[in-house]
Amino acid sequence: MRPAHENQALLRGTLLRPAHERRAPVSRAYERRVPGGRALVRRVSLRRAAGGVRLRRARGWCGGRPAGSAVLVCASGVELTVLPLLGAPLAVLQPGVAVSAGFEVSLPLLLTGVVLLRYPQLHAVAGVAAVVLALLALLTCNIGGLLLGTVLGVAGGCLAFSWVPPAAPGAPPG
């Protein structure tokens, strides 16, 4: 005689399918003893566990790159790009030609942040370029995106310039 769970599986047709066509379980129950002596049963989502693997992989990828500085430089480029497009109250400081000049500074600044993520070995060059472009934004982009874009760009550029690549495992220090 079959156990009840196999009978239910037969009724649903899952045991009649080949193994490669069966659906993977969505959750799994774990039992743990708590200090009081009673068992605590907890269901853990397997999708959440797979998300943990993705998170570890992302941390490993970001660990070898100046990710924080790239995020600051990209945020600066986005802020400087979006500010002239907002319209009236915020972007009235420098109308006219300043919009195109602002794009000529903010889009390369955004590209510099992407370069920092994609090519971490160019961190020094990209860091200096980010600082220069952020300071140039003071003249061309509504006082540097109301100073916020310039501050983000300079901070990200300085962090990128001072970033040190992680040492290879087993390599002697120094």
Write the layout of secondary structure elements.
Blueprint: H1 4-12, E1 27-33, E2 39-45, H2 46-63, H3 67-82, H4 97-118, H5 123-140, H6 142-146, H7 148-162
Antiparallel strand pairs: 1-2
Question: What attributes characterize this protein structure?
Answer:
two-stranded antiparallel sheet, 8% strand, mainly alpha
**Helix vs. strand class:** mainly alpha
Task: Give the N-terminus to C-terminus distance in angstroms.
Answer: 69 Å
The largest beta-sheet arranges its strands as: 1-2
Q: What order do the helices and strands follow?
A: HEEHHHHHH
Number of strands: 2
The value of Rg in angstroms is: 27 Å
Mean pLDDT: 75
Share of β-strand residues: 5-15%
Give the CA-based shape: extended
Main beta sheet: 2 strands, antiparallel
Helix fraction, binned, reads 55-70%
